[in-house]
Each structure stands twice: as C-alpha cells, then as structure tokens.
From TrEMBL, chain A:
Pfam families: CO_deh_flav_C, FAD_binding_5
One MF annotation (Gene Ontology) recorded for this entry: oxidoreductase activity
Sequence ranges assigned to domain FAD-binding PCMH-type in this UniProt record: 1-173
Gene3D superfamilies hit by this protein: 3.30.465.10, CO dehydrogenase flavoprotein, C-terminal domain (3.30.390.50), Uridine Diphospho-n-acetylenolpyruvylglucosamine Reductase, domain 2 (3.30.43.10)
Name of the protein in question: FAD-binding PCMH-type domain-containing protein
InterPro entries in the record: CO_DH_flav_C, CO_DH_flav_C_dom_sf, Diverse_Substr_Oxidored, FAD-bd_PCMH, FAD-bd_PCMH-like_sf, FAD-bd_PCMH_sub1, FAD-bd_PCMH_sub2, Mopterin_DH_FAD-bd
From TrEMBL, chain B:
Name of the protein described by the UniProt record: Aldehyde oxidase/xanthine dehydrogenase a/b hammerhead domain-containing protein
Recorded GO MF terms: iron ion binding; oxidoreductase activity
Keyword hit for Ribonucleoprotein: no
Alphabetical list of InterPro entries matching this protein: Ald_Oxase/Xan_DH_a/b, Ald_Oxase/Xan_DH_a/b_sf, Ald_Oxase/xanthine_DH-like, AldOxase/xan_DH_MoCoBD1, AldOxase/xan_DH_MoCoBD2, AldOxase/xan_DH_Mopterin-bd_sf
Alphabetical keyword list: Molybdenum, Oxidoreductase
Domain Aldehyde oxidase/xanthine dehydrogenase a/b hammerhead, residue spans: 26-141
Keyword Oxidoreductase belongs to the record: yes
Amino acid sequence: MQYQAPTRLDDVAALLASAGGHGRVMAGGTDLLARFAGGMPRPAVLVDIKRVAELMVIEQDSDGGFTVGAGVCGAAINENAILRQAWPGVTEAMDLIGSVQIQGRASLGGNLCNASPAADSVPALIAAGASCRILGSRGERTLAVADVIHSPGKTCLGTDEFIVSFYLPPRPARSADAYLRLIPRSEMDIAVAGAAVNLTLDDEGVVVSASVALGAVSPVPLLVPRAADVMLGTRLDNDVMVQLKSVVSASCRPINDKRGTIDYRNHVAGVLAVRAALIAGQRATAKERA
Amino acid sequence: MKHATKKPLRSVGTRPVRPDGIDKVTGRALFSADFNLPDALHGAVLRSPFAHARILSIDTTRALALAGVKAVVTASDMPAIPDDKVMINAQPPDFRDMSANILAREKVLYEGHAIAAVAAKDAETANRALQLIDIEYEVLPHVIDVQQAMEPGAPLLHENLITKGINPAPVQASNIASRHEQVHGDVELGFAQADIILTEEFTTQPVHQGYIEPHACLARVASDGQTEIWCSSQGQFMVRAYCARLLDMPLSQIRVMPLEIGGGFGGKTTVYLEPLAVLLSRKSGLPVKMQMSRADVFRATGPAPGSYISMKIGARKDGTLVAAQGILCYQAGAFAGSPVRLGCMTAFAPYDIANVKLIGYDIVVNRPKSAAYRAPGAPMASFAAESLIDMLAQRLDMDPIDLRIRNAAREGTRTAYGPSFKEIGYLETLEAARAHPHYAAPLGKNQGRGVASGFWFNIGGQSSAALTLNEDGTVMVATGNPDIGGSRASMALMAAEVLQIDVSQVRPQIVDTSSIAYSDLTGGSRVTFAVGMAVIQAASDMVVKLQERAATLWDVSVEHVRWQDGCAVTDVEGREERLSLAALAAQTAKTGGPIAAHVSLNAQGAGPGFGTHICDVEVDPDTGRVTVLRYTAVQDVGKAVHPSYVEGQLQGGAAQGIGWALNEAYMYDENGAQLNPGFLDYRVPVASDLPMIDTVLVEVPNPRHPFGVRGVGEVPIIPPLGAVANAVSRASGVRHVDLPMSPPAVLKAIQRAARRRR
C-alpha cells in the first residue's frame, strides 16, 4: 500500500484517477484503520486528504451559509461557536461520535463516505438540507447529502471522486435543529436508532418549515417528508407529537441485528423524533428571545 | 501471633503511592505482550468455525511446506492424560478436559475452539499457514441454551457423560454433568409455617471477566529441555504446574517468569497459550511468542456461567424467613465444572434461615469453557435470592434493610451449607447502609432505589514470603503471587508495620518460580490475608534475628533487647542504647552474616466477607434505558491495609456487577457463532455510564489475622446484580427477573405490565 498526502485539490483527484479504482481516500481514518486492523484488504494507494487546505476550513458566507471542509475534525466543528449556534443539531450529532481521541480525527466527509446506516452526522446533515461539493478528475459537481449514500457501505461517488466540503444553507430567523440517538451506553457506541429534526417557526411559533431524517432504521439514512408534513402549520402540540411518533415509527424499515430488533427500533425512532422536534422547537423559540 | 490488632498501627491503614505505580502510569511496566526475545517466532492458533463438529481429519502438510513456517502442532502432540493424572489430589481442574480445551481432540465443542497452532517467522506467514491446514469436519447440531441443553433430545457434547451425584447413576448420557444437593433443616416443615410464599424464575447470561490485557506468552525451550515461560497469569506456580501436568514434564524443568498482569478477575487462573508455545518452541528450537486478539479472548476464554434459577422463599407476616428452596442450573460451557455448588452455598448465606434446600445442576453447552470470575457462582444465585427478599419487603411494605436486619446471620448462626459463622460483620454493613445519607436521599419521577447484600467465604492457603535485609538497612520483600490488586503495596505495608520502619524503606518484589517456594495462585481473595501472613511472620522472624545480632554487639542477653521504632533497644546502666536497622545491617559480618527470613505456611482462619450495596436508577419509560444515578458499596473488610486499593476493589466489583446487570451479554447467530466478540457490542460499562461509586469500609477485625484482615476482592461483585435489579424494578413498577436489563428488555417488561393493567 502506497501512502500519499497531497496538499492540492487537483493532486487528490489525479492520484485517485491514476489508482484506477484501487485508491482510497482517508480523512480521519477512524473507520478505515479499524477495518485494516480487522483484516480488510488494503488499497494500492491511500490518499490522506487532511493536508489539503480547502478540506480543513470552516467558513461563513455573507448570506449566513456555512462551508465546512470534508476533513475538518469533530472537535474543531464543536469548537466553532457560530456554527454551533446556527446548527446545534448538526454539531451535536458530530460530537456524539466516538471518544475525545476520535473527535480529534473523525470528519463529516468520512462519516458520510463510510456509508453506514447508523452514521450519526448524516441524518442531521440531511435534515439540515446540506449539500456537498464533489471533485473528480473530470470536474466538479454538487449533490444533496441525502443523495450520496447508495446502499450500506456504498456511495454514488466515482472511484476518482472525493468530497471537498459541505454546504449548510442560510438560516431564517427562529430556526433550529436537533439530533438524538439511542445507545445502551452513554457514549462509545453505535446508534440503535437516531432522529434529526430541523425546524423554522414564524412569529406566532407556528412551524413554517420542517424536515425529519432518521438513522439506523433503514438501509440508508432516511428523509421522512410525511413526518415533516405532520408538523407544518402546528405549534408542536401533544396530539401533533403523538401523530409524529406514529408516522415516524411506520416509516422505518429496520432489520433485526445485534444492536436492536425491528420492533424496538420502530418504537424508539418515534420516541426520539418527538423528543428531537421538541428540542428543536425550544431552541428556535429561544433564538427568537435572544 | 504477637501483633495484636488493638495496638495502634503506623503503616497498615495508610495510603502511600504504590511501589509499581510510576511504572504503570508511565508505561514502563512490562505486561505479557511487552516481553520479546531476539529470533522469537510468531505463534498463531487455528480456531473452529463451528459450534459443534467431529474432526474427521487434520492435514498439516501444506502448512508445513510454506516457507517461513517452523512448526505446527495438533492434539496429537499433546500427551494423553492417564487416569491417575486427571486431577491433583482429586481436586479440579480436570487436566484431560483442559488438554482437550487447549487443542481439540476428536470434536470441536464451540466456535473458537483451538484445533492447531503454528510457529512461523512472522505474523503474516503464520496466518497464511493457518489457512493451509486442511480439516474435514462433520458438523453436528449444537446447543447453547442451558435449559435446552437439559432436554432429553438435546445434542450431546460428550457422548459418555453420565450425571454425577445421582443415585442410582443414570444409564443414559446427557449434558447434565453433575447434580449437587444442599439440605439444611426441613423445607416442607418450613414452608408450612410461612404466611407468605414467593416463587420466581430468573435467568442470567454468561459474562466475560473483561480484563483489558489479552492473554499472551513467550516460551523458550533449550535443547536439554529446560523451559522458560514469560507470561502474565494469576499464578506463576499455577502456570508451571499446569504446563508440567499437560506436557508430562518434571516441575524442575520449567521456570515461569511473571510479567505484570492487566486484570484477571479469576479468568487467568488457567492456561490456554502457554503449553502451545512450549510445544512450538520445543519443535522449532526457537523462542515462540503468542498473543490472543480481543476476539480470541471472547471466543475461547472463560466467561462466568449463565444461569437459569427457580427459587422460592417463605416468611412469616413479621418478615421472619422460615424456608428457602431452589433449583440452580449453571452453564459450564464445553466442559464440566461450573461453580453451581458455590452458588448454592452462598445464595442465602447472609440470612439465618432454618430450612433451606437447594439443588444445583452443572450443564455443558457449546460455548467456551467457563472460568472463575470474582466470587465464582455467587452473583447469579445472589441475584435470585436478593430479588425475592426485595419482593418480600414490597409485599410486607417493609424497609428492605430492616427486613435484612431481622434475618441477618450473626456470630454463631449455622449456615445452610454446614459450618457456623464465627466473628462476622454483616449486621454492621446493614446498619452502615441504613445510616448512610444516600439511603435517605429523595428520589424523583421514574427513579428507584435498590438494596442487596452478598457473602463470600474468602480463603487462605499455601503461601511463601522471603525477606532480605540489604546492607544499608533497607528491606526486600519477595513473594510468588502476581500483583493483581495492589498486593505489592499491601505486603510492603505489613512488613513495614512489623519492622516498625517507614514503608519507603521496604521494596516488594514479585519473583519467578525458581526464586521462592511455592504459593497457591491468586484467587479466593487470599493474597493480602494469606501471603500477608507469611510476610508478617517472616518480618517477625527477622525482628528476632535482629534482636539477637544486637545482643551480640552489646554483649548482653537477648532478653534484654527489645524492638522499637525500627531499632534494637537495650538499657545499659539506666541509659537507653539503640542500634538502627541500618547500623545492624552494616555490621552483619561481625554478627554472623547476612540477615534473611523465609516463611512458607498454609494460612488458616480466613474471615468471611459481607457487603451491602445501595443503587439508585432512573428508567426512561419510553425507551427502557436505565441510568445509574448513585451507588454506594458498604463492606466489612476486616482491616483495610491500603484503604485506597480496598476502595478500588469495591468500586471495580460494583462496576463489573452493574455491567452484568444492565448490558453485558454474548450474542450468537443460528449456527452458534458469536456475533459480538469485541468491546463495541459486548457492552462493559464505560466511565460515563457510572456515577462515582461511593464506598464505606466497615472494619470488623478477623481475629485470626494479626491485623484483622479479611479478603475483599470478591464480595463487591455479588450485590450489584440484585441491587440494580431491585432499583430498576422499583423505578419501573415491574419486577425484572432476566439479566441483562438492556433497554429493549426493560421496555418490553414495562409494556407487558401496562397491557396487563389495562
């Protein structure tokens, strides 16, 4: 295995293209290195992207949108107070991944490209309406995060393509998001189910826009427009929450495995979606006061 | 002995930095995988992919032909164990079973069962060689559940296994290895006196000891057969004895060097890799190093057994227990020998009950052979008994500690397993728990408080210690037991106490099997008590010698010399004369040569230990997730030699017991293969899962130890299962009888209870 650590975007694309399908991008390496240790065959070329400047920055545009480099580590994301204030759900989802040591390495780009159904940051990014900038040897394209994962372990990226950065759109006033997951432990575990909710309220506290995304309850992280529709035009009252819970539970398509049963995952996804919606609602209201 | 507990103590009971502390926090300490020799080969083990299969043939030709492969061993390289060598003094372990566990003969009995081992120039070559070993299997039906294994039609692990302990002996083979019956009083008479009878069935899952250090060793066999083994274990003499027995070698040919041990908890009281490394080194003529991966540890080393327990208690309206009865079925794993008998003995030991009848069954299943785990056999039996006591308290609307106090065993109480208790401190632990601020703290919504107690025998045993006085007056203390729980610190403190010197002047050492006389392995909470006795006696002998040497120097009779503050003291014409340890050490050439004391003894008089734990939890009624809010462990420790390490024992036992209660479980697929052989999905609690565990050391001295010491390492893992289950049951309003109480299990129990209420 050849290790390469280029510093220019074009070199990353060129290295991947010349590897002819036998190259592999490494961001934090927190999934990849563990797989190598577990006996996974190694690629011919390992491309470490953490030395490329564009992949390591967090920037806010003049209109309020954020660009987050695909290689920025979780700790850096959570130390950015402005990003955390604008996107508390996305940042808390990233913060849930692994230990302090892992937080110093793990990235949004790696979490997405690992393509696990249980990735914590992915439902939050999907609910946020995030997109990503993808670069390959034949050029550049932009894709919604919701469209990147194809099936468990597989993305729609070409073998010469990699993610440069994520884009989080500008926020209207009274907007907030939240992410919750269930694990049997308090940390250092993989989600049994996860739910992200992103809301915008009007002056009266009525939901004017909503999105709900779920993790670990289907082959790929799941956007649930029906669940968002339940909340639109409401003040998240009890009966709305009861309805949200049942719509979410009915939308799940989980499997039985060592981390949870179908019944349990369906149930818990509903519980988490309700709790996340209430937290997002409270956060949005608090922003109004602030 | 001369050193009465009444005397004020200067070293025992203090908290100096441990002698091995700097090495361990800086990474300098050598654990088993840290030891290397030049030219050492890499040893690897081929393990069964099947839970149960007959081995039709093994062909190692292709593996041996691979360049870089130096040796291959299979069961045919292990000597057959003759009938008279199966056990030592008719006591377990069974060496024929141990041999077949180390390398499978005829059949593989669990997924992960070792079949062959290879030594090669590097890990890659060794692993490739494993792939080149050709094995023909006939896959057999398997059974991993203890109740299913007892069914008449269950797949048989050992076709000739006839249940022991049944008269007349059954004619049909089964998976029931033995039946054990313990009868005290007359349970029928007892239940006839009861106003309330409570019956319940309980299940617990096997749990791994979870030591952080995987098994590893390095062996070197010289051309004359002299064999050296470097490894961590719970007893270097155990490793020597077991390897000698398994490989038919004289003990004098084996020398075992103990390396630091990264946790054992009972699981390192046997051997897995060492005999393989010796065989591979003997065949190859080179040193061989072997290491297990974490997955190997989970797939092939001992968990504590899982259990199915059916139990019944009877009480009068005032709370007096009058009878207890039960059936305990323990999963031994692939070979007989679960500690079910100890489960029967300990279940109701904290209580004075006139009529107790318990029947234990030892069951073989297609899982790794179970191994000792802190207080082997006791936690699961205690979980059942303490749950029933809590149910009784709820039924009587009585405080659960008051109920236990009413029934508590005291000095003179005849135990259900035979002997009567001498001086014990159970009542004192209950009173301390009741008086603790934790017990009176308010509880919120969805919160509950559980209490449970536990008992462990503690043992003494064969122990050796050697003290030598250095030329500058400092002292070396050598013992033959690994430092698994701070024993270096404890030995140094006890020696310093007797010599009346500062502990900094004492350097403790753990030495190899050729450097000191035999000691039993580290287990049964025996080392501080029993090896400590050898240290104390050796230090006392040294004091006598020092007084004699001083008498020689002063030319006075030894009766006129006393030992005080680390000095020999005498009165000359009304004036006090002193000779310090350093002064005496400097003049040994004049007084008869170097000064040393070596004591070997078989320590008797271990003091039983009792603990009472209080646990607060909050249950999330929508997800079933349990959070432990507060935890207090109270234990009678006799005398805490180094209180910090005693508190650490209590906290560690509580943490392991909480894991057992809440989330630890093996998961298997339909073929009997483990799905979670790693710490990600085998959920030992992480630090953030636990509150700071508060401890209360109750000191009711054991009068048969010079300083009053009782063993402390095992009691603290017994009460947590019951304490957590009782807390979760009270918080959720539904009784939980199956462990672990994982979120889905708790939610299901809550939902089932809600449906019943509708």
